[in-house]
Amino acid sequence: MSTNFTNGEANRDHESLITPLLSSQRSLVNSTSQVAIVGAHVCPIESLDYEIAENDFFKQDWRSRGKMQIFQYVLMKWLLCFLIGLIVSLIGFFNNLAVENIAGMKFVVTSNMMMLNKFGMAFLVFSVSNLILTLAYLNGVDAPGIFSLRTLVIKIIGSITAVSSSLLVGKAGPMVHTGACVAALLGQGGSKRFKLTWRWLRFFKNDRDRRDLVTCGSAAGMAAAFRAPVGGVLFALEEMASWWRSALLWRSFFTTAVVAIVLRALIDFCLSGKCGLFGKGGLIMFDVYSESVTYHLIDVLPVLTLGAIGGILGSLYNFLLDKVLRIYSRINEKGVALQNFTCLCNFHFHFLSSFWTTMACLIKNTNFEFQYPSILIFFVTCYFLSIISFGIVAPAGLFIPVIVTGASYGRFVGMLVGSHSNLDHGLYAVLGAASFLAGSMRMTVSLCVIILELTNNLLLLPLIMLVLLVSKTVADAFNSNIYDLIMNAKGFPYLETHTEPYMRQLTVGDVVRGPLQVFQGIEKVGNIVHVLSTTSHNGFPVIDEPPLSESPVLYGLILRAHVIELLKKKAFMPTPVPIGTDALNLFSAGDFLKRGSGNGDKIEDLQFTEEEMEMFLDLHPFTNASPYTVVETMSLAKALILFREVGLRHLMVTPKISGRSPVVGILTRHDFMPGHILGLHPMLTRSRWKRLRIRAPRIFKLF
Amino acid sequence: MSTNFTNGEANRDHESLITPLLSSQRSLVNSTSQVAIVGAHVCPIESLDYEIAENDFFKQDWRSRGKMQIFQYVLMKWLLCFLIGLIVSLIGFFNNLAVENIAGMKFVVTSNMMMLNKFGMAFLVFSVSNLILTLAYLNGVDAPGIFSLRTLVIKIIGSITAVSSSLLVGKAGPMVHTGACVAALLGQGGSKRFKLTWRWLRFFKNDRDRRDLVTCGSAAGMAAAFRAPVGGVLFALEEMASWWRSALLWRSFFTTAVVAIVLRALIDFCLSGKCGLFGKGGLIMFDVYSESVTYHLIDVLPVLTLGAIGGILGSLYNFLLDKVLRIYSRINEKGVALQNFTCLCNFHFHFLSSFWTTMACLIKNTNFEFQYPSILIFFVTCYFLSIISFGIVAPAGLFIPVIVTGASYGRFVGMLVGSHSNLDHGLYAVLGAASFLAGSMRMTVSLCVIILELTNNLLLLPLIMLVLLVSKTVADAFNSNIYDLIMNAKGFPYLETHTEPYMRQLTVGDVVRGPLQVFQGIEKVGNIVHVLSTTSHNGFPVIDEPPLSESPVLYGLILRAHVIELLKKKAFMPTPVPIGTDALNLFSAGDFLKRGSGNGDKIEDLQFTEEEMEMFLDLHPFTNASPYTVVETMSLAKALILFREVGLRHLMVTPKISGRSPVVGILTRHDFMPGHILGLHPMLTRSRWKRLRIRAPRIFKLF
């Protein structure tokens, strides 16, 4: 009896833990859909919507997890980061070796060409810079196949051949993309197509984990390219990531630490001369350490000038690069990319035998006497050559060309100042590189640390900071950073952090126009199929109308991918009655996993009989029942902040005055783009726009 | 005629620019209150609510700004950052000089005592660590007077005397607080009380700008304390700031660059021996650079052990410190703080003549032979002495004691390993310091850079990263970082970034209970005064009821501070009719400025006649008409994310089913605290809570 009682007690207690807490007290149950609650492994809500919590991991009932399983999960996470670091640093090592071994060989250009021909499909990917794609992805702009296994292979081979054929292109950009690819591939459990899937990786198949991993991967790529682990983390933080979390700092630090340690171990291994020049120079690429760097207040003036000119040169560089890229993209449309590429290659081939050596010479060799004309010619050639090289259809980085150009300019200034300064020419080259980098890329802390890790001269820090500040300030007065410019030129719907002044003049109600497609809580299959095939929306509001509720109520938001999954399973009912949570039993955790980019099912692939079209589908259990909402009279600026900070994909707009339809519309990323706003409002003419915006919204030019 | 026409046209055009855009087309005007739109200078919405945009600056009509004025504003911003950097680095300089000059003098302890007696009022402030207060402020927990001019003065003098009287306390914490004070004082336009106000600084009198400035100030403080400009920025980013924006990175980088340059200039100035030891050693405090640090894979094992033990020691340190602080706070309540302080001082005075020198010796002197017993005794003494020293009623930092303890422990391990390792004892000391820092503070990137900038040895980077990782991982298994522990012990309502699992089991509707106080759009003065004096809420919903609208509508949110300002002006009306935007003319931009901490008016200070109490006040023009809202069925976890990411103070909860009251409640910071939730629900017992939370919510212990 007492045992029974205890059992009963235990059962009841267990039950009360399973059912939403305190339901006896509440008038309304927690309406968050179970799918949404269970989280990460089931619910690929297409947003960074943070309800998908980190440790939502084991099957449906998250409370069944023991300490051991949590530990296992955490361990897997770390293992993943470790693998990313390991693979990326090995790729970096392989990259280095390969470049060294095939550099200067005549056949490189030809092989490069052949490779490109073979993988012709990848042209679209290549025509956009490596780094930009990763940047766009981390902002929430996904493109099909950017992180596929094929992209990874092409990127590695392409980057090696491009660099070793003495093109004036760098390897940092491709390395960042490579790192991102590795991370994304590991995160989606390998590549299904090539039968390389690991089951234990399925838990990371959701937007948020994938985005976190890609951030770590890009940090690892940067760290491997410059052997700058801390710089890599900061680069990912300052430039790459659009949504930063403190956990991410720790994880990307771990990844780059693995890179640093593996690189150091490889250097140790290579010291015996087994792998060419790899181990030479150790961790520091351009070591300019000197016991006591002596500089005084009098040296500040030339340094300031250097910074200011660097800023001007940098912004001009961005302007020209932007123009050249626009021309290239027009040429590419006409299919003459290959000719353009060959021609450039040959030109380079004869001109610059190895700019890498020159760079090292510029920065490190303090005694070498350069001639004024030769260094000037070198600077001008590098400046323009790197601009025309970047847009070609090959994996190209910007960092190295900018550094070499900046170093030559800095050295030139150093020579001009001559004996009036205490700093030697090598240090001027470093400062010049810093100023040109800041003028073009507009980063601060990450550039500072990368330069530090490249040159190993901490005493120079105050001067480097000064140069970075001056250069960035000057350049910002002219245009925006190079990545923004390319992003605009390519027309990505990149979501900025800041709001434009005109956004405070508009309400969200102004922006969400056009027909709104909604689903009933229990919807006819025919209607669903019709809506899905006639629209391309990725999310739909679910509304309960009488008799399901007293008055129309916004029940939640359902994603296209989930609806398609439901249709595929054909869990239809002949009559419109709620089926409740039983429906969840029809699905396994894997069904709602986020697919690899571009691999989702399409509505066109599904076939339905006439009979099925007349049946019903209960959407309730699969709906995210607590989406973020805003009132239609909220200013667009505020809505953008919410959208941006929380990392949303869909934002429901509710009416100010109740009684009308419970939802007015859905805000998506595109609704915040100036072009969209301009198009919607005939009264908002361009001239008027111009007066309203005050600060020019740069993206505006596109539309 | 034609002139008239043109004028008319121009007028119309001008008008249409002033009136909300496209109003002719819209059914609803942009309901964002003008006060809220005009922004920063008028509207101290007590949140980081980002509608207060950066460049909302000049009087009411923001469109009247010209390019020149924007430029001027930007310039002012930079000037402010420059001033912060300058002042903080000068304070750091002064600090150093003073410590050096009075160190070892007998009268220090006495003078310290006297000073403390005189400023007895500041005890409350002192009894909490310097850094913690700044940390709490940046999370949104404001305490009266933490950044006042008096606090600043006491902090500087106190820190100097504490350090120079050979207490085992550091200066990093006080320097961070000093930096924050300087920034806050500059941001609020100086100190009104001491007649030090600058008019041009009034534009920064709002929560957001002040918070940004304090972040920059803390970065500057850290940079000045360790001469680590990049480390300072990263410290502010990783540990201090709760809300980080990319603009902030750039601005804090600027501030610490000023610190670096000024420090470098001062070193230059001091080289001639004018200021004691200040210039000695240059920018790098513990330079351990060596041409080629040789270490191989075999050295990794002792380093890993070092990291693991460092982690254990660090978490034990945190545990003990937490306990000791709790004991101290009980002692302080009984008023015996002073005795405790004196006794400690004397003890220290005799024991450690100068731990700073010892530290330098431990790290830098590679040849010096320490005895096993002596270094062990030194380690144990430092370990426990720093724990009991920290809680005393004096400005004390944690960094230096932790570094010296860690260095002694590292050196000890290095001596044990002896000739089996390629690394010398000095490097072991550095690694030991790193492991102990990571074990106690749990930072990664910022610690790494700070150690780099302290020791100038980039080649050691992979090992330092490894040690930090291992140590942090081990320590995290035991307890949380020292700042979290102290924060919990002090009971600050600190808002964490992550959500606890139980939060997904609760809806916001569960949490907002208790009587809700609302205002009508046009409210009787008597009611307002009654509500304000009987509640302590800082924000109230404003509701329009018939006849103002067809059905009850949530108009917006009004802040207590604004209502009090309205009452002060006594702009009352005899009848309840809307007065429209004319009301704004009664107020100048300065009226709604955010006051310095704790200086707001109180409702008790206002007097009203019987007649006035019967009059009406139109709240509409002063209401923030588009507050962020959530539906009552949203899970608490999601609401917390919104609250935390957007930086809110008040979050309105609307009903799921329309027709009831348009607002269910307001969520504030306290509603997310476990204690609050626990208290509200009798069914949520502690044992049940324990099972639900899975990951222990650490703050739980408090309640």
- Gyration radius of chain A, in Å: 28 Å
Largest sheet of chain A: 3 strands, mixed
Number of strands of chain A: 10
Distance between the termini of chain A: 78 Å
Instruction: Strand order, main sheet of chain A: write it out.
Output: 3-5-6
Arithmetic mean pLDDT of chain A:
72
Low-confidence sequence ranges of chain A? 1-65, 104-127, 335-340, 345-353, 691-703
- What's the number of helices of chain A? 27
Return the CATH topology of the largest domain in chain A.
Clc chloride channel
Shape of chain A: elongated
Transmembrane segments (chains A, B): 73-99, 119-140, 152-169, 212-237, 249-272, 293-317, 337-363, 375-392, 398-417, 429-452, 458-478
Subcellular location (chains A, B): Membrane
Domain CBS (chains A, B): 622-683
Organism (chains A, B): Salix purpurea
Which key phrases capture this entry?
homodimer, 703 residues, Clc chloride channel, three-stranded mixed β-sheet, 27 helices, elongated, Cl-channel/antiporter (chains A, B)
Q: Would you kindly provide a written description of the structure presented here, covering whatever features stand out?
A:
The structure is a homodimer of 703-residue chains. The first copy, chain A, is mainly alpha-helical and 703 residues long. Chain A folds into 5 domains: 56 residues, no CATH class; 202 residues, Orthogonal Bundle (Clc chloride channel); 194 residues, Clc chloride channel (Orthogonal Bundle); 86 residues, Alpha-Beta Complex (CBS domain Like); 112 residues, CBS-domain (Roll), CATH 3.10.580. Chain A contains 27 helices and 10 strands. Chain A starts with a helix and ends in a 10-residue tail after the last helix. Chains A and B meet through helix 10, helix 11, helix 18, helix 19 and strand 8 of A and helix 10, helix 11, helix 18, helix 19 and strand 8 of B.
